[in-house]
Every structure is written in C-alpha cells, then in structure tokens.
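User: Please check token order:
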Amino acid sequence: MTGFGRAEGVFEGKKISIDIKSLNSKSFDLNIKVPLRYKEKEFEIRKILNDRIIRGKVDCYINLENLEESNDVKINKSLIDAYINELRNIASDGPDFEYLKMAVRLPDAITSRPDELTEGEWEALAKIVHAAVDRFMEFRKAEGAILHEELERNIQNIDQYLSEVIPFEEERIIAVKERYQKSLKEFENVDETRFYQEMAYFTEKLDIAEEKVRLTQHLKYYKEVMDNEDFNGKKLGFISQEIGREINTLGSKANHAEIQKLVVMMKDDLEKIKEQTLNVL
C-alpha cells in the first residue's frame, strides 16, 4: 500500500501542485492539506482519493502558487485621504507618515476581491488530482511486482523445507523405537504386546501427515489468491495465519533436531510473508 505520486498544472496564472504518499494501514486514513481557495471542494477531492486508493495511511498536499501579478487587492485612496484629513483635525501636529499608517488600518482602506472558484478551475484541479493518483498507482504497481516475486519466493522456500522433512520422518520413529527398546532391556518380564501398543500410540501422536497435507494446501491457496484475486491483502493475511498454525503444530510434533531446524526456517520465511502481506491491498 505504500506509494508516491506527484502532478502539477497551470490554470489562468495559477500553478497547482499535488503530492500524494501513503503507508500501510488496515483502512483508508486520509490527511489532506487544501488551500483556502479550494476548501469548498475538499469533500469531492477526498472522494476521488478514497475511491481510487482504497486502503493506506494517505497524505495529500495541494499547493497553489500565483504566477501572475494579482489584481485582487484594492487601495481606496479617496477613503484614506478622508481618514488622514479627519486625523489631522483631531491632532494637527502629527507627521503625515503617521497619519498614513493609521489610515490604512481603518475599515475599508484596503480591500481584497478574491474571484470565485469557477467550474473550469475545479475541472482543472480534479484533472491534476487524477493525474497525481495515476502516478501514485504506477508506483504501487511497480512495487507490487517486486513484492509478488518476494512473496512467491518465500512460499516456495516453505514448500521446499516441507519436502525436506520427509526423509527424517521414518528416521525419527526408528530412533524413538530404539531408545525405548534400549530402556526396556533394563527391565524383566516386559509385555511385548503392550510395548508395541504404546509404540503405535506414540507413533500416531507424532504423525505429521495431516499437517503436511494442510500446509501444502494453504501454500497452494495463498499462491492462487495472490495470482488471481484483486484487493486480496486481508485474505492473504488470514491464509498466512493458517500457514503459521500448521507450521507450529509440525514443530510441536517434530521430536527430531533436523525437522526442528526446518521448522525454524519455515517460521523465518513466514514472518517475512506476514510483514510483506501488510503491504498488499
């Protein structure tokens, strides 16, 4: 969801510049700075950004610069002269400059005549807003392609580590059986039937076949959603949680040093997936 976009344009001597940037967020959180002249259009600008950006902690800055000399200010000379004459009547011994300083502060001595925002100017502003969002979305798209590659690599890594578990499965059962048999040699009159019943129970308790199947399915589903669905960030987050559950169960049942090492590496890649998934819409 991170991104940056900038656009600018000129309308009737006014330069309009717009910068948009965003960070990760579970929802659309907009902070916008709009010049006073465009305050009346803030709601429409927010709607454009919300509809197109969708999610993220977004900052939008709109700057306005007058390129031409403004005629908005009017100095009322006749009124200022009248003020000065009245001030002289009150205190005739003052310097003219002091009278002038006081006169220009009095009502209507200097007035501004800001022109109203026209439909044409609003259309120009909206066009620049859309252009800035276009640049922003291009940035997101480029970043998304890199993110897709990283997520795919992490998923493949976990799948590869899972395949490396297989050679150790039978080995750990044999090791457990030998350890128990060695311990039982110290005792006499051992019930061999009961021994094998306990071994069967222990073997079933350590069985990770279901975890492997579910983990494989979750990895496949994650990749399918990532490749084929739009705005899938939240869904990918839920799938990554399910991947984590199976990896944790695999680790608790491992009872083998090499499998535990593989589980640790799976968790390392899963943490990268969870962190990167936060940046997916």
